[in-house]
Write a structure and sequence with these properties.
mainly alpha, 94% helix, 0% strand, rod-shaped
């Protein structure tokens, strides 16, 4: 099978791989944002406790 006929399948495979990586990255960013917000709220609560 000549390479030329394999190219479209390889391109699609790479596009699918990139899409999966992007989805994973977005998911990781969302998880980090949630953790950041949790830590920020904890810092606010700790500061309020110290001021009381």
């Amino acid at each position: 099978m000549p390479f030329g006929s394999q190219a479209p399948a390889e391109v699609q495979r790479l596009k699918d791989q990139i899409a999966q990586m992007q989805a994973s990255t977005v998911e990781q960013i969302a998880e980090v944002q949630i953790k950041y917000e949790e830590l920020q709220q904890q810092l606010i609560a700790d500061a309020a406790t110290r001021e009381a």
